Every structure is written in C-alpha cells, then in structure tokens.
Amino acid sequence: MEFRAEVTTRVIHDPRRGFETTASVMETRWDPLTGQTARLLRDVERLLPAAGFDVAELAAQTRPGCPFCPDRIEAATPRFVGAGFGDGRIRVGRAVLFPNLLPYAAYSSVCVYAPARHHLPLAEMTPVLAADNLRAQVAFVRAAHRENPVAAAWASINGNHLLPAGSSVFHPHTQGGCHPVPTNTQAQLVSVPADRAEEYLTLERRGGQRYIATTGQIDWVAAFAPTGPGEIRGFIHGVGGLAELGDGVVVELAAGITHTMHTYAELGISSCNLAIYGAPPQAAGCRLLARLVCRSPLAPFYRSDVTYLERLHAEAATDISPEDLAARARQHFAAGPGCRTG
Ligand SMILES: [Zn+2]
C-alpha cells in the first residue's frame, strides 16, 4: 500500500502582485482505501473563511414555528406505525427520535439532540448529547431490523449540521436510514477488503502525521485524501453492524464526534456532515466507518464548499491540510477521557 501523492506547480502572471509571475502548488492524493483522488491546495486564501455571521440571531428568528422545539415537537413530528417502535417515537435522555417526513429510505428517522437546544453550535456539542442521540438511532436501527431485516439491511446514521450541510430545519438533529439497497458509498466501502483497511490504519498509526487517537475500539485519523474539507474518519473495530453497536462503542463514537466538532469550531466552521456507514452482517470489507467533513460556514450568500468538482467529479478540493487538521484534533481528543493519542 502506498500513500500516493503528486505535486503540481502552476505559474501565472498574478494581478495581486502587479502581474509578476507567481507559482502555486497543489497536490493530488489517492485514497489508499478507495483509490479516490483529492486535490489539496497549498498556501491559498482560506476557501472556508470563518464567517462573521450572527448564527444566534438566525436561531432566534427560526425558533418560533420550529417543529423540533419543546412546545411543538409532540404535535408537529410524526410517529412510527409498527409495534416495534413503542409509542411511535424513541426517547433516550434528552434525545427524541421519530420518522422523517421525507421517505429517504424504507426506514427513515430524525433524531433531535434535545428539544431545548434549538441553537447547538459545534463548540457546544457534548459527549452526553451525542451519545444519547446515537443510542436512540441504534435503537431505531434495531427496531427496523427486527421488523424487516431485508428492507432494513443497509443502515446508516447521518447528520446535516445546519443549512450549508443540507439541513432544512435549523434545530440540530441527526438522520438515520435503513434500506434494502446500499448507497454508492456503502457499496464502495464493503468492496474494500478488510485487510486493506487494517494495513491503512497500521501505516497511519506508524506514520503518526494524520493519526489522531484511539478511543479504545475506534481509531481516529485525518483522511490522507479527504472526500471533503477537514475529513476525519473513525474506524470501528470488532463490531458487525450498526445494530450490534454496544454502549461502550456508542460512548466512544460520541466522544470522537464531539472532539471532531470542537476541532471544526476552532477552525471557524459552524456546519458539518456526519455519516456512520453500516452494512448487513454478512457483508465483508470495511464495514463500520464514521466520517465527518466540514461544510461552508453559515452566512448569507456563502460560497458553497461543493463545486462542480465535488458534485460532478466526486473529487474534493480543499486547503485544509490533513496533517495540520490531525495536529489540531489531537489536542481536542487528548483533552477527552479514555483517549490515547500516541
Ligand atoms: Zn427548534
């Protein structure tokens, strides 16, 4: 296995310097797991600058009428039909889970971190909020599998944190999906041999540049060839699928997600996506992977981080160096309980 990278230098007459010739450097990197390429831009003005936008003000504007806030959630959110879902909603701690109004999958859930947290900036995510949310999503996946193991075969837990990440409701929440057909990335990941994932992790651990920490059963690394800005991956060992996630691993996942969100907040990022990819028990390959990426900070008329490259070429272009990201994230993981960063 190699961590393949090719550096390209490009020269222009630069209007920012009176049309002197200036050279800029970019790097093409190949993901050792999937072969997918990414483009790293070096020494450029920040592609995702921290926005001066007052997110708290938008939170205040969107609070009246929000269907996930405490005085509306009971009346405004749907309930599951099957007997396996209790009274039609799943509650764990402050988390409340219910069906998604939009049928993105055969089983499609929304889980609010806490009805009282209409405004939940990434910097204020806590391991408890994240863990209770994940516990509710795991209970949802188990209920779906019990009801119809075929229709619910391919499970995932996902997040669109704020509008730039794709959320239509301001109030932070996660989304679960169980479907008979894998998404493109779920299919891609199960085609990656398990030993390739092991070798990748062994090399990252040994190299240390992008390795962030282990929380015990999960290894956290900054992606060498990220699929989006600031991609952090958590490789979950010894678990077959999302329905089998024990509480100890859920707590680890919650800790890693929280540390990653705090790292993003430090970079001035307010919005991110999350996916935890599950696969049916009989699937081989790299099955359980958690992945987070930064999205453009929330602001009016923001520049989307998703351009023709990401949307139509499946190729990310980013100026967030995976090695710098790992160094930052290591500080946050080191401050958390139960992490070994060396
Ligand atoms: Zn709300």
Provide a short characterization of the protein structure.
This protein has 342 residues and is α+β, with helices and mostly antiparallel strands. It is built from 8 helices and 14 strands.
What does this molecule look like?
By secondary structure, this protein is of the alpha+beta class. It folds into two domains: 5-41; 55-335, HIT family, subunit A. The protein is 27% helix and 25% strand. The strands form two sheets. The protein has a ten-stranded antiparallel β-sheet, with helices on both faces. The radius of gyration is 20 Å and the shape is globular. The model has no long low-confidence stretch (mean pLDDT 94). The structure holds zinc ion (ZN). Zinc ion (ZN) binds at residues 63, 66, 68-69, 118, 171.
Kindly report the average pLDDT value. Answer: 94
Question: What's the CATH superfamily of the largest domain, by name?
Answer: HIT-like
- Supply the CATH class of the largest domain: Alpha Beta
Number of domains: 2
Oligomeric form: single chain
Adjacency order of strands in the biggest sheet: 4-5-6-8-7-12-13-11-10-9
Question: Structural class, please?
Answer: alpha+beta
Q: Can you tell me the overall shape?
A: globular
Q: What's the order of the H and E elements?
A: EEEHHEEEHEEHHEEEHEEHEH
**What's the CATH architecture of the largest domain?**
2-Layer Sandwich
Count every helix, treating DSSP H or I runs of 4 or more residues as helices: 8
Strand content: 25-35%
Radius of gyration, in Å, reads 20 Å
Provide the CATH topology of the largest domain.
HIT family, subunit A
Distance between the termini: 22 Å
Ligands, ions, cofactors = zinc ion
Q: Tell me the major beta sheet.
A: 10 strands, antiparallel
Give the helix proportion (percent range): 25-40%
- Unreliable stretches (pLDDT < 50, length at least 5) are none
